[in-house]
Amino acid sequence: MRKRRLGKILALILTASVLCACGAEQTSTDQTKEEDSAASAGNAQESETAVSENTADQQTASGKIKINIYYSNEMGDGLDERTVEAEKLTPEFLLEQLAQENIVTEDTKANSCTVKEENGQKIVVLDLSEAFGAYASFMGTDGEYVVIAALTDTFLDAYQADSLRLTVEGQQLETGHMLYDWDLTWYQLTSYTIETADYKDGNIAISYPQLVNVHNSYTEEEWNDIFEQYAKKDLEYLDGETSEYTLTYEVATATEDLLSIVYRVSAYEQGAAHPYSYIETFNIDMTSGDGLRLSDFVNTYNVVGAFTKENGYTLVNTELDVKDFQEFVNTSEDLVETDYFEEFDIDYANPDAYPNGYSYKKDGKIILCIEVPHALGDFVEVQLND
């Protein structure tokens, strides 16, 4: 079982490799390092993308880029943020802003910064000068945690990436408290952690979460059983030699109050007309241990309204044109009924009942997972804007 570290222990992400530019020009030494890294990852393909493409949706009307800078709160036990504008997104600008908040020292420099796409995940690869290594090592445990958290969240937010691969002078950062030998993901302040359990049989590969150190041991055991049960429920119908089946998961939200998990399945069975994919989600009230449904988050009347008013929703994680989806909405008899959305998500009192769809929360927003025809992608994820 491999660990996905959340809270004071960060998340591990296992990945392969695709390269794109992210900041300052790279020296030939940096290029050699990237080539060696790509070679060790296997048969990775590489392509290059300009930073402006990564940040297009962050630009203001004036053409400047809006950037969130994360820093320690007054108590030193969490993060606050402020928004600034920049003519251009560079690692130097981010470090300058972080230095103003004492997250890095003024003499901390970015030796290199690239953005790689690996297995569908966007990774910022950042190498800092020794000044940062010395500063992080000087901090106490809590101070170091906040410094790494603020640095990580600032770069991930700015480059709209999934994880940060941090080194100092080309080496893994090692302080007196921690060896940072994994890719850093968004920091979440939680007392519990999440580990990843794996199952593999031929062409079947399943990864699912397991909770650790939940304050209520019964809640932990109950949900770990549910996570495993739903992850493996299709196995009786699959053959590892003739079926291709992959299940991965995403931690969309992890706080002391709410845990929102997304299962993503892609599969193909021999003889089938085409591959298929689907999503299942789990929303947990971490205080009570209860499972939550869409109707616990929002009045379903407002959900129906989101599909009828301008800018009521945004499509996410899809290449589907909004016009094609809106045409589907306009011809649907379900999406205009509040009762339809009342039956979103697993009914844990009646788990055999098949939900009409799923939902999860990410960055404070509600995301709906709606089944659509295969030609439109099997399902679509829709963010409610209100």
What would you say about this model in short?
It is built from 10 helices and 19 strands.
Protein model, in words:
This protein has helices at 28-40, 51-54, 91-100, 130-138, 141-159, 217-232, 294-297, 300-306, 322-331, 338-342; strands at residues 2-4, 19-21, 65-72, 79-86, 110-118, 121-128, 163-168, 171-174, 179-180, 193-201, 204-212, 243-254, 258-269, 276-285, 291-292, 313-316, 358-362, 365-371, 379-384. By secondary structure, the protein is an alpha+beta fold. The chain has two domains: 10-180, no CATH class; 193-384, Fervidobacterium nodosum Rt17-B1 like (Heat Shock Protein 90, 2-Layer Sandwich). The strands form four sheets. Strands 1-10-11-12-13-14-15 form a seven-stranded mixed sheet. The chain has a six-stranded mixed sheet with strand order 2-5-6-7-8-9, covered by helices on one side. It has a four-stranded antiparallel sheet with strand order 16-19-18-17, with no helix packed on it. Helix 3 packs antiparallel against helix 5 (141-159). The radius of gyration is 22 Å and the shape is globular.
Largest sheet: 7 strands, mixed
Report low-confidence residues grouped into runs of 5 or more.
1-21, 23-57
User: How many structural domains?
Assistant: 2
- Architecture of the largest domain, according to CATH? 2-Layer Sandwich
- Classified in CATH, the superfamily of the largest domain is Fervidobacterium nodosum Rt17-B1 like
Bin the strand percentage: 25-35%
Alpha-beta content class? alpha+beta
Lateral arrangement of strands in the main beta sheet? 1-10-11-12-13-14-15
Q: Tell me the span between the first and last alpha carbons.
A: 39 Å
Radius of gyration: 22 Å
Q: Tally the helices.
A: 10
What's the CATH class of the largest domain, please?
Answer: Alpha Beta
The fold-level CATH name of the largest domain is Heat Shock Protein 90
Q: What sequence of helices (H) and strands (E) makes up the elements?
A: EEHHEEHEEHHEEEEEHEEEEHHEHHEEE
What is the mean pLDDT? 82
Secondary structure: number of strands: 19
Query: Globular, elongated, flat, extended or rod-shaped: what is the shape?
Result: globular
Helix content: 25-40%
